[in-house]
């Protein structure tokens, strides 16, 4: 067994998508088949993949927390990327089309996936000294051209998978680098805090992926917190959609307002917290609250968001203080303590963390 595929009874099944079910459900109910049929197929495929993941979990166990960082010379810590092509089918991994160190191919989706995996690897290594998403050099695998008009991208616990979109609402899912960073960060969470994908802990799981997905984009573009757009999935919608992106960390609830998609339902503060049984307790909706807290922190501190603000979130995620069922209040307390530990009691960073949570209505527990 590969050392990076070791198993642990503590780690939970993982299947995380970038497009929330509520958005696909909205599309699936549209009277025009051009919108509804691809959305229904995407929802069905997601349900099938989720079931396969659960069956694999029962049969073979679960992905483990990361092994200790191997004794590898920093100069030799390189990504190991493999990109496969599903060729419109639903079988994984598909045909291998580009491996680490090989030249770009003619397929732009393959090259974007390869570059996005590299940008994610680079942020975690150069900024946080994390050797791949498990901290121990885990190879990064991805599959493009999954399914027919598949309108999503997902992390299944082992690889990234990208659909081509339906061409009506969604473009190719390899286009936004933050989508790639978002999904791979689910792997970082899987190998560290292992947050349950349910309720507030699930919303935190989603938010952490949005945070680091945005930081990966900002880092690759060399943008400061003030310069960044703080949008998740910008460029994913076609020109027919009245919307900028899937989510906005700067202004949750404003990412889209479209006749077909409806209006972005994300709240920015606890005052508008959504109590729902759908989407594992609204994990893609209520993530807007911790997203907005991080945005406020990053802008308040200024400079590059991956530095002080990102470091505090990374310390929190990997520091060992979080429980799988951590809620917003406990996460707020953990980030406050992380800022105090790294920067000092009463430091600008410590006070800024306390302020950002207060402004979104979360009281640290």
TrEMBL record:
Biased composition (Basic and acidic residues): 74-99
Chain spans, region Disordered: 60-105
Peptidase M4 domain mapped to chain residues: 106-190
Ranges that cross the membrane: none
Subcellular localization(s) per the UniProt record: Secreted
InterPro entries membership: Metalloprotease_M4, Peptidase_M4, Peptidase_M4/M1_CTD_sf, Peptidase_M4_C_domain, Peptidase_M4_domain
Biological function: Extracellular zinc metalloprotease.
Family per record: Belongs to the peptidase M4 family.
Designated name of the protein: Neutral metalloproteinase
Biological source species: Streptomyces oryzae
Lineage: Bacteria, Bacillati, Actinomycetota, Actinomycetes, Kitasatosporales
């Amino acid at each position: 067994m590969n050392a990076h595929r070791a198993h642990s009874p503590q780690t939970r099944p993982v299947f995380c998508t970038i497009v929330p079910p509520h958005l696909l459900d909205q599309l699936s109910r549209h009277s025009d088949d051009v919108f509804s049929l691809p959305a229904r197929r995407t929802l069905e495929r997601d349900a099938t993949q989720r079931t396969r993941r659960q069956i694999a979990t029962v049969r073979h166990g679960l992905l483990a927390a990361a092994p200790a960082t191997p004794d590898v010379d920093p100069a030799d810590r390189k990504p190991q990327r493999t990109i496969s092509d599903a060729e419109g089918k639903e079988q994984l991994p598909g045909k291998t089309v580009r491996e680490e160190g090989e030249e770009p191919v003619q397929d732009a989706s393959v090259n974007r996936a390869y570059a996005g995996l590299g940008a994610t690897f680079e942020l975690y290594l150069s900024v946080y000294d994390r050797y791949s998403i498990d901290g121990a050099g885990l190879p990064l695998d991805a599959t493009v051209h999954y399914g027919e008009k598949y309108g999503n991208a997902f992390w299944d616990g082992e690889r990234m998978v990208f659909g081509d979109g339906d061409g009506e609402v969604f473009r190719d899912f390899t286009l936004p680098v933050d989508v790639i960073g978002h999904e791979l960060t689910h792997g970082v969470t899987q190998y560290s805090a292992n947050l349950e994908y349910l309720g507030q802990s699930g919303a935190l799981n989603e938010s952490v992926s949005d945070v680091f997905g945005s930081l990966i984009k900002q880092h690759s573009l060399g943008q400061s917190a003030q310069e960044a757009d703080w949008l998740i999935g910008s460029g994913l919608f076609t020109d027919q959609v009245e919307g900028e992106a899937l989510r906005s960390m700067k202004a949750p609830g404003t990412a889209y307002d479209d006749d077909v998609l409806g209006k972005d339902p994300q709240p920015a503060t606890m005052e508008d917290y959504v109590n729902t049984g759908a989407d594992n307790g609204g994990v893609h909706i209520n993530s807007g609250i911790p997203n907005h807290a991080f945005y406020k922190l990053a802008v308040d501190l200024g400079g590059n968001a991956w530095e002080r603000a990102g470091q505090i979130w990374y310390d929190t995620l990997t520091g060992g203080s979080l429980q799988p069922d951590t809620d917003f209040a406990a996460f707020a307390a953990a980030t406050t303590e992380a800022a105090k530990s790294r920067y000092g009691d009463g430091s600008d960073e410590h006070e800024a963390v306390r302020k950002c949570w207060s402004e979104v209505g979360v009281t640290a527990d």
